[in-house]
């Protein structure tokens, strides 16, 4: 059984903030070095890095080189959009469990501030056509913008704007109540997530509407961050390690991407032979309040164990890194028993990770 030996992240900083001038390497390398130091390692067999909106060029290789890892570490970059950071950890687990590697560094990094400008070439010879969202299905009429899909989810699930705002207010309050973030590697003077605030009912009510019942208060802001874990074989396990019990990625209806984690969560729990009531902690992605709420309701999770230190609504959404951040939060927050991380991705994809820590 693969084990997470260490897990660290940067703060999550909204785009245009303190991380705006940093490259992917400048965001990632301090986290990589902290993970290695925490695990007592000097090198790894592979680096797997999720990145969703960067310029390409195999960021995992660039990070490995910039971190001073041996030249033999080739680096593997993946893109499964929001789910990528969590999927990187599942790929690392597969390498370790298969015997193909003993130690893998896995996670994600995203600089929304420095994302490239995108444009499609015109085959007829006209000027390039700029675009914001890449196609996530082959059917334009079944490829909704994420905010529109969230608004439709709120309608179909009967989750009112006020309920979404209440969820967001609690998310911020939980984050504000945390006195110290030991999981965060300070970069550019950022030692905690700066976006968390005292969100009130009045402030939430004044938030601009994004789509339908979705507002700026109930949608996570675009952000910059990096997060990584060391995944190793169980022969290297120790008392502080987090055992990976199960994990899976499943596709769902592209028109309802927010519900995609539900079958993935059910599948991961079934693989681990446990029920939702046996979980001590769950980190559920809050790209939108309604998406988290629908996943909690659809899997019978206790809201009391979900995002105990606040979620993405209180920090931001660095797309390729967001899934890995959930795993880092589990590593530092789960004291004993079972923990779950789950995230939705564009195109109707959901990923879930089930972990366990023995009582200490």
The CATH fourth-level homologous superfamily: Thiolase/Chalcone synthase
Shape field? globular
Number of helices: 9
Spatial gap, N to C terminus:
19 Å
CATH fold type: Peroxisomal Thiolase, Chain A, domain 1
CATH architecture: 3-Layer(aba) Sandwich
Tell me the radius of gyration. Answer: 19 Å
Structural class: alpha+beta
Kindly report the average pLDDT value.
Answer: 95
CATH class, named Alpha Beta
Summarize the helix and strand pattern as letters. Answer: EEHEHEHEEEHHHEEEEHEHHEE
Q: Enumerate the spans where pLDDT stays under 50 for 5 or more consecutive residues.
A: none
**Beta-strand residue percentage:** 15-25%
> What is the percent of helical residues?
25-40%
Q: Biggest β-sheet, characterized?
A: 10 strands, mixed
Any idea how many domains? 1
- Strand element count: 14
If you had to describe this structure to a student in words, what would you say it looks like?
- The protein has one domain (3-116, 182-193, 217-357): Peroxisomal Thiolase, Chain A, domain 1 (3-Layer(aba) Sandwich), CATH 3.40.47.
- Strands 1, 2, 3, 4, 5, 10, 11, 12, 13 and 14 form a 10-stranded mixed β-sheet that branches. Strands 6-7 form a two-stranded antiparallel sheet. A two-stranded antiparallel ribbon has the order 8-9.
- It is built from 9 helices and 14 strands.
- The longest helix has 16 residues, at 24-39.
- With 360 residues, it is an alpha+beta fold.
